[in-house]
Write a structure and sequence with these properties.
mainly alpha; Cytochrome Bc1 Complex, Chain D, domain 2; two-stranded antiparallel sheet; two-stranded antiparallel ribbon; 14 helices; globular; binds heme C
Length: 357
């Protein structure tokens, strides 16, 4: 029990960027010794929004690990070809490099895959907000024809028949392999996909002079003349609300109104996060804009005129230099993945099978 307590506290430290780990280890590894890691990153103090995880039990850690295994496992698809990670790829900010990603039998998804980053801060799922919780969302791709094209029943059967999965479910949950637990494991892994500590965070939170002149200018433009903050707001640079910016107006799908049936929602899509934007292109709900520069040019011209255009979208009159600065700002939002910290993976690995405290 003492051992697992220490392991848990180490795990937590890694998530809160190693601040307490540093207190325990006499010589912290070089990558953890950065002064930024010593600042208070509690949710209250931080714009990064690292959740308090000090209370995670070994069981909860097992749930996250099980979710990770499920997320990357093509055995969840009908023909063993596709996993969640086929379309939500870690190296692309858990988005896809394809305009419209493909699932089983190369069937194209209807929209671009959104980046699954810091979704613990999110309150509504999909570009059109048709689902609320990550748990509810997690089961849906399993049965969608152009994603995993399987049935929940078949997946539950496969999991119950696999010694490894059965053991992992029994260790993580009191009632083993169930539909609810499948959803819970995947959703809780997604909540661990936290990205933070970008140069912008280091500047804003820790007042470190890490930004170039152009990035600083871009941050200023984001907050002033660019007006980006009006929608890309909060810790995840996304208001979790729906806006019509006119992307693919007239040729694309109708977005939120298809779900709500309310005409005033026509052409509205959920504001995506800007975190790790350099990795998540192509951009927008249909992947129709290739580069960050083209995205900023799109805003500079005032989106695409249409009867439902959001009142906040107007021509910006940015100079070429200002467009470049906003692009540099966007690139400076690339942060580390907390879950990828090798120390953390090591500790989580050690906890496997240790059961309740
Ligand atoms: C074939 C590609 C593909 C596969 C496979 C896939 N997804 Fe997605 N995912 C998408 C697309 C496309 C969307 C956006 C759909 C929309 O908004 O209408 C999406 C949306 C999401 C969202 C919503 C994020 C947000 O910010 O709204 C989550 C969460 C998610 N997927 C998780 C998963 C999980 C978990 C799996 C595996 C069980 C999975 N996806 C499998 C393509 C895929
Ligand atoms: C009125 C709200 C609003 C404002 C203001 C706004 N955005 Fe957006 N942004 C959105 C919405 C909504 C989308 C998704 C649109 C779509 O997919 O059709 C989006 C998409 C993006 C994307 C694509 C991200 C991705 O993963 O696909 C980037 C980058 C972006 N905006 C940057 C900016 C910048 C830079 C500014 C300021 C110049 C800005 N936005 C101003 C609402 C807004």
């Amino acid at each position: 029990m003492i051992v697992s307590r220490i392991l848990i506290s180490c795990f937590c430290c890694n998530i809160v960027l190693a601040s307490c780990l540093m207190a325990q280890e006499s010589s912290p590894p070089a990558d953890l010794s950065h002064p930024f890691l010593q600042v208070d990153l509690s949710p209250k103090a931080s714009p990064v929004g690292i959740p308090k995880v000090e209370t995670l039990s070994p069981k909860q850690l097992q749930i996250v690990n099980l979710g990770r295994k499920l997320f990357f496992d093509p055995a969840l698809s009908v023909d063993g070809s596709t996993s969640c990670a086929t379309c939500h790829r870690p190296e692309h900010g858990f988005s896809s490099p394809l305009k419209l990603p493909t699932g089983v039998a190369d069937r194209e998804a209807k929209r671009h895959a959104p980046a699954i980053l810091n979704r613990h801060l999110g309150s509504i799922q999909f570009w059109d907000g048709r689902m609320e919780t990550l748990e509810e969302q997690a089961l849906q791709p399993i049965e969608t024809e152009n994603e995993l094209a399987n049935s929940i029943e078949a997946v539950l059967k496969m999991l119950a028949e696999s010694d490894e999965y059965k053991k992992a479910f029994d260790a993580a949950f009191d009632d083993g392999v169930t539909k609810q637990n499948l959803a819970k494991a995947i959703a809780n892994f997604e909540r661990a996909l936290i990205t933070a500590e970008s140069p912008i965070d280091r500047f804003v939170t820790a007042r470190e002079s890490v930004l170039t002149k152009s990035q600083r200018q871009g941050l200023w433009l984001y907050e002033s003349k660019g007006g980006c903050w009006q929608c890309h707001t909060g810790q995840n640079y996304a208001d979790e609300k729906f806006h019509n910016t006119g992307v693919s107006w007239g040729v694309g799908d109708l977005g939120r109104s298809e779900h709500t049936g309310d005409e005033s929602h026509t052409g509205q899509f959920k504001t995506p996060t800007l975190r790790n934007a350099a990795l998540t292109g192509p951009y927008m709900h249909d992947g129709s804009i290739k580069t960050l520069r083209e995205v900023v040019e799109f805003y500079n011209q005032g989106g695409t005129e249409n009867p439902y255009l959001d009142a906040k979208i107007k021509p910006l009159n940015l100079t070429e230099q200002e467009i470049d600065d906003l692009v540099e700002f966007l690139k400076a939002l690339e942060g580390r993945y907390i879950w990828e910290n090798p120390k953390q993976a090591e500790v989580v690995g050690d906890l496997e099978g240790s059961g309740e405290e």
